[in-house]
Design a protein that fits this description.
By secondary structure, the protein is mainly α. The protein has 12 helices and 2 strands. The chain has a single domain, classed as ABC transporter involved in vitamin B12 uptake, BtuC. Strands 1-2 form a two-stranded antiparallel ribbon. Helix 3 runs parallel beside helix 5, helix 6 crosses helix 7 and helix 10 packs across helix 11. The radius of gyration is 26 Å and the shape is globular.
């Protein structure tokens, strides 16, 4: 027996057709839905993560600049640089315990770290400058200094994690994106510090002496420049930048004796990718790598972030072994 043709009545129409507005096609509705989802993803997921990467990138740049300046002038790979980053954070915690506010500690820590760095350079590192195996000796010396400083932190402050209060709680909404106030402050202060460092190196007489000593220390010394004092001052300034970054990041990350390890690893990668001894390379590579790490964490497990950065470093070294930019004494 022949089947009766089915008649589709309004009551039996699909739910998708009933949900469409008059004169709207199904394709247009799907495109509108996709656009809405994409905008919400950008606003509530990607944009906050990019801001996080930018703020961390600025702090990475501060640490990487210290490493890059020290190597560009002294030709020393400071393996204890991460401990100076931790030193700034621990000094700030000591100041907080004495009733000092965060804002005053932020101003006091760099002047406290500078003489410490100056004495370490004059008392330890400068003693091996003229040795035939100076690169190996300075590497071993700073590794040993790193171990001593880490054990000192553990002995004085204990192994427990400490975390200061957020000095700028709350958030600000901008274009529908919620931005934490302290991260905005960190971003502003970090950028200002990077610009101030650039002005000192490239627009002052002191910076001219630093760059001249990095290019040819013997010729610079023959012109009457106290090269050894410039070395000590530059080392002190480089580690003070790391200590300053430690104070800035203490309210975001916890303070503990081994806190310098992971962070300085990212800074070392930025210095190598940007070009060892390059100011511009440290800035660009630091911001780029921190952004890559922040965005990639949305799609890959956290334990793959470090291998990803190392893969980028290896790829850059294969294509351009000297890094992205020239070292300080050559531009």
């Amino acid at each position: 027996m022949a089947r009766r043709p089915s008649v589709r009545t309004p009551a039996s129409a699909s739910d998708d057709t009933l949900r469409l507005a008059p004169g709207t096609s199904g394709g247009a509705a799907r495109r509108e839905t996709v656009m809405t989802v994409a905008i919400e993803y950008l606003q509530f997921v990607l944009a906050p993560q990019m801001l996080n990467g930018l703020t961390i990138g600025v702090a990475v740049v501060l640490v990487a600049l210290g490493l890059s300046i020290i190597f560009g002038l002294l030709d020393v790979v400071n393996m204890a640089h991460g401990e100076f980053y931790a030193l700034g954070a621990f000094i700030s915690m000591s100041l907080y315990s004495l009733g000092v506010s965060f804002w005053l500690a932020l101003v006091l820590v760099p002047p406290i770290v500078i003489p410490i760095g100056f004495l370490i350079e004059r008392g330890l590192i400068q003693r091996v400058y003229q040795h035939d195996q100076r690169h190996v000796l300075t590497l071993l010396l700073t590794v040993g200094l790193s171990i001593i400083m880490e054990d000192a932190f553990d002995l004085i402050y204990g192994p427990n994690t400490m975390r200061p209060e957020n000095p700028l709680p709350g958030s600000t909404e901008f274009l529908g994106v919620i931005l934490p106030n302290y991260r905005l402050f960190l971003l502003a202060v970090g950028v200002a510090t990077i610009l101030a460092t650039w002005l000192v190196i490239y627009r002052t007489r002191l910076g001219a002496m630093i760059r001249a000593a990095a290019f040819d220390k013997h010729m610079t010394a023959s012109l009457g420049v106290p090269v050894l004092r410039v070395y000590a001052g530059t080392f002190a300034f480089g580690v003070a930048l790391a200590g300053f970054a430690g104070v800035l990041l203490a309210p975001i990350y916890s303070v503990f004796p081994t806190m310098g390890h992971d962070f300085v690893l990212l800074a070392f990668t930025a210095v190598i990718v940007g070009g060892i001894g390059s100011f511009y390379g440290a800035v660009i590579a630091g911001l780029l790598l921190a952004q890559i790490q922040a965005i990639s964490s949305l799609y890959i497990p956290p334990y793959w972030s470090d291998p990803l950065l190392f893969a980028i470093m290896v790829a850059v070294l294969v294509v351009r072994p000297q890094g992205l930019f020239n070292w300080m004494g050559k531009g």
